[in-house]
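Trying the structure run again after the queue cleared.
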Amino acid sequence: MKKIFTLATLVFCLALMTSTVFAAESAVTRIKDIAKVQGVRSNQLMGYGLVVGLPGTGDSDDTWQMIQSTVSLLRNFGITVNAADLDSDNVAAVMVTATLPPFVREGDTIDVVVSSMGDADSIQGGVLLQTPLRAANGDVYAVAQGSVSTGGFVAGRGNNRAQRNFPTAGSIPNGAIVERTLEDELGRNGQISLSLASSDFTTASRITNSINAAYGGNVAHAANPGRVDINIPGYYRNNVVQFVASIEDLPVVPDVIAKVVVNERTGTIVMGGNVTVDECAITQGGLSVRINRTESLSQPGPFSYGTSMIVRNDELNAREDMSSSVVMPATTSVSDVIGALNAVGATPRDCISILQAMKAAGAIHATLEII
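Done. Tokens:
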């Protein structure tokens, strides 16, 4: 059925006919939830190693990196082996990855992930030999070793084979010992900086005002929309942790741009509460096309020496219903529309198409993002 919708009508149909979420006005939240202290970050580590003790599920002889690594390992222990004579399918070449959290010290342990890089069938039950873990600068920050836990298995051969999860990747909880830590420079120069999760001029200004109202003076100032610099008061110089904790708990009202996010695959539409609209009449086509297909058997006449045939009969019906209209004035926000309108018959796909058309017409004041 052809319908004429105003933009306000569209917004209401989105609320009722689709999986639509309307974001309320920005709520009071903690600074901790929208910003973090610069310098408090993790670092990625990576290393190459060998997993031994596998029950014949390791790399084949065609995996040259395993052969070469095994020969080099044995040479370090004073054992000379010819690579051509080495046949060991209980060894697998692996890559070891880990994340070095902030503020860890020497002797602390971290989890590691072990992943096969050859043609091993499984590293289940294997033991990772001592593997240095390096950062992007090439320095070693941790050393990993221990029994690998995969949480999966593979059994059988050829077509008679059963597999659960991914036995070629596993983990070692607390499998790496930290050997070197990053320098702790938090507040060392009498200043810390907050990095906003979403850069915004208004939010940065509100964070600055909230901190200055709590500590007086010009303790904080916004360097740019994504960073707020804070001078640590003298009475907090020896207790930076408490100062940061007190700042993180300060309330602030973040500001967000008006945005409408549309997911065409699921029919989900998320609209911010500060989206404004203008009065706009929209005609959504209601043309209905229906094709009926039937099949019948054509039987040849007596003594005609013909053959039976299946005949398809197609019938096409096209109809366009009369249009209906709902007229409403322009609204200032989505919430005003919700309280003023009743349900209208628009499908989720109709609503998405209408949103795109209205954005092109300039009738909706928001950023339209399609994912």
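Confidence is low (pLDDT under 50) at residues 1-5, 14-24, 337-344. Worth checking whether this holds up in the mutant runs.
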